[in-house]
Design goal:
There is one protein chain. By secondary structure, this protein is mainly alpha-helical. Among the domains are: 1-48, no CATH class; 101-285, no CATH class. The chain contains 10 helices and 3 strands, in the order βββαααααααααα. The chain has a 3-stranded antiparallel beta sheet with strand order 2-1-3, with no helix packed on it. α3 packs antiparallel against α8 (254-285) and α7 runs antiparallel to α8. The chain is elongated. 15% of the residues are buried.
Length: 341
């Protein structure tokens, strides 16, 4: 068998040279390189691999002034020049509607709490004006400014509360999907059920707490469940206070209406507190502290003394005490014996 071969530039097959070199590969009709020993090292071969840019033919055509045909690059078979293609990336999930709003749930909760606090301040200022009006007349400009302040703060707080509610519902859907995915299951409740349970009045006082409790049901850390229960109680209390505030506005007495202004300020403060508790609850479910920092695991170890003392304890004053107990004659006799030795 001949020890001189011709490699194929297309399929990589090596053909033994019998009498005269060939030009085309019998297998794939590719170009055969010049003959070389089968075991020749790279520096002794009379051919070498040359890497060219994909657009070399286009550039040559442009230089020569020939028409250029731009076609989509394709291969009729797997390339064999030794390059490794990167692994295919997993297809990105289709973005859901209102994803950006859900990502800003924490910011919206802080803004909502702040706006409800401002609305409470506006109601308190209105109540002070009513107290002032009992003895003196209020200037119409000051009264108009108070009306604008109260109405604008209430409307902005209401708009922010609606946007925040949508963002928190989106966060709830994502949190449930992630929790059930980690458990190797799918969420048994549909998105429509979650949305309706959080939106329908009176019903939304019960079901949000159930949805949240199902997320942390398998956790051993009770802090998230405790935060959900505290938020649930505050959520129900806030709903009851809101219902009472709405019913208070139907009163006809001037004194009851004035008291209603003060109760409205209290309702705004409760709404601000519920918004902050919602933020703390969300962070607890995400295994973070109320400030948004991730919790670090702590391992408590029992510290015990060594079984054998490393250094023998020293009894202070032992020799002096024994000397004090011995009589003076015995001490002198012992001293004389030591001198004699």
């Amino acid at each position: 068998m001949s020890t001189v071969v011709q490699p194929c530039a297309r399929c990589g097959a090596r053909w033994a040279v019998q009498s005269t070199p060939m030009h085309w590969c019998p297998r794939c009709r590719g170009v055969l390189l010049s003959p070389a020993p089968i075991d020749a090292p790279p520096e002794r071969r009379n051919y070498r691999w040359v890497a060219r840019k994909p657009d070399q033919r286009t550039r040559r055509a442009l230089v020569a002034g020939l028409p250029v045909r731009r076609e989509t690059p394709r291969y009729t078979r797997i390339p064999r020049w030794g390059l490794l293609d990167p692994p295919p990336r997993p297809a990105a999930a289709a973005p859901r509607p209102l994803t950006r709003l859900t990502a800003r749930a924490s910011t919206l909760l802080i803004a909502t709490a702040s706006m409800f606090a401002v609305a409470a301040v506006a109601e308190l200022l209105r109540y002070l004006l009513l107290l002032r009006n009992r003895t003196r007349l209020i200037h119409p400009v000051l009264l108009t400014c108070s009306d604008v302040f109260v109405v604008a703060a209430a409307l902005l707080a209401l708009v922010l509360a609606l946007l925040t509610a949508v963002a928190v519902v989106g966060w709830l859907v994502d949190a449930r999907r992630l929790a059930f995915r980690e458990a190797g299951r799918t969420d048994p409740r549909s998105v429509r059920t979650l949305v309706l349970g959080c939106v329908i009045p009176v019903v939304n006082l019960l079901w949000p707490g159930v949805f949240l409790t199902e997320i942390v049901a398998r956790r051993s850390d009770p802090r998230a469940l405790r935060a959900i229960r505290i938020w649930w109680a505050a959520w129900v209390f806030g709903g009851l206070v809101t219902a009472v505030a709405l019913a208070w506005r139907t009163a006809d007495s001037l004194q009851v209406k004035a008291d209603g202004v003060l109760f409205t300020a209290f309702t705004d403060l409760v709404a601000a507190a519920v918004a902050l508790l919602t933020l703390a609850m969300m962070r607890a479910v995400e295994d973070r502290d109320p400030l948004g920092r991730s919790r670090t695991a702590r391992r408590w170890l029992i510290a015990v003394d060594p079984a054998v003392p490393v250094i023998e304890p020293v009894q202070p004053g032992g020799g002096a005490a024994r000397a004090a107990e011995q009589p003076k004659d015995a001490v002198d006799r012992e001293h004389e014996e030591v001198m004699a030795k």
